Amino acid sequence: MPASLTPSPAAQAKALGHLRVLDLSRVLAGPWCSQNLADLGADVIKVERPGSGDDTRAWGPPYAKDAQGKDTSEAAYYLAANRGKRSITVDIAKPEGQALIRELAKHADVVLENYKVGQLKRYGLDYESLKAVKPDLVYCSVTGFGQDGPYAHRAGYDFLIQGMGGLMSVTGERDDLPGGGPQKAGVALTDLMTGMYSTIAILAALTHRDRTGEGQYIDMALLDVQVAMLANMGSNYLNSGKSPKRWGNAHANIVPYQTFACADGHIIVATGNDGQYQKFVEVGGRTELAGDPRFMTNPLRVQNRDVLVPILAEMVKSKTRDEWISQLEEVGVPCGPINDLHDVFQNPQVQARGIVTETPHPTAGKVKLVRSPMRMSATPTDGGAAPPLLGQHTEEILRDVLGHSAQDIAALRAKGIL
């Protein structure tokens, strides 16, 4: 039996160091899930197309730069979702490549894929086919619309799903204000949340397997996730029959809970209760607003927001951003600046938490990555290995996991399988 089937002591110290994940996914939702699992210590084998690999490898600029400041082949987008993994190139369209994937599945706990519905069945790499070689396998499929329903065979992309799933109907400035209209989130939020939900589902399925010995199939759909993450907005509709509208940087159910322009920039003020509202207006020198019967409770402030918010907006202009933040923090009113990413990564709290790590990289020398936010006392995550070069670990995986000889591997390369 290949030695690597027994996890090393270092791997066993990680929460998921006893697990192996065969990752057939590309782009963002699937890789975000497998990166979570890698952060927690799982051995994630990323299977990529020979010659090109994951689509996001070419989604640049920007690219990581080498010691001379020249672009490497590693797009920053790809680097964001693939740390801690090992890359193997396999042509799964060829029978020999399909056989390799089936071999690897025998030594895996989890298979993750995001191919179109039915595509992997043509290759004998669907759940039923791999379950035959590994009965307790946990197999997670990520698609745009799920494995059934009238849209099942449609391609699904984050931007489309943000629109179809209602997020853009509640995101953006109010229609009656300048710049009003639907707006997508600034990051691929539906993809990222699908990756997070997939992580949770996989861990739950593994717990079930460990109790019962039974594997299972997980059907994850971007549209399902988008509808689920509407949260209070979805509940508002279901309990009122009225579609919520866009509020820009304001809140549908809380006032004041929004951005304000101050003397030299913008701040966010988020008053979650009546006491915080009273302190806010007192700091602004408008104590009469605290006792005004139109504004004394949050439901009244929501009802009368069109009267109150212009008064507050004029009040906020009387001080600078730093004055407001300092004075509101003193009295316990939640507030903060609106940072660009330079400000974010220079923020003393971000720096104190060590969120950015520098990791050795084969071509860039070092790459800066954002570490996992999961902080665990007994099984901590670390910065993880740098996102792998295309096919970087092909020989290592075939040799150590499957026991293939150098001659076998050379023959597969000669046939264009790797």
Automatic annotation (TrEMBL):
**Domain of life (superkingdom):** Bacteria
The protein's name: Formyl-CoA transferase
Species of origin reads Pseudoduganella violacea
> What Enzyme Commission number(s) does the record list for this chain?
2.8.3.16
Per its record, what are the GO molecular function terms?
Answer: formyl-CoA transferase activity
Q: Which UniProt keywords apply?
A: Transferase
The record, for InterPro entries, names: CoA-transferase_III_domain (IPR050483), CoA-Trfase_fam_III (IPR003673), CoA-Trfase_III_dom3_sf (IPR044855), CoA-Trfase_III_dom_1_sf (IPR023606)
Source taxonomy: Bacteria, Pseudomonadati, Pseudomonadota, Betaproteobacteria, Burkholderiales
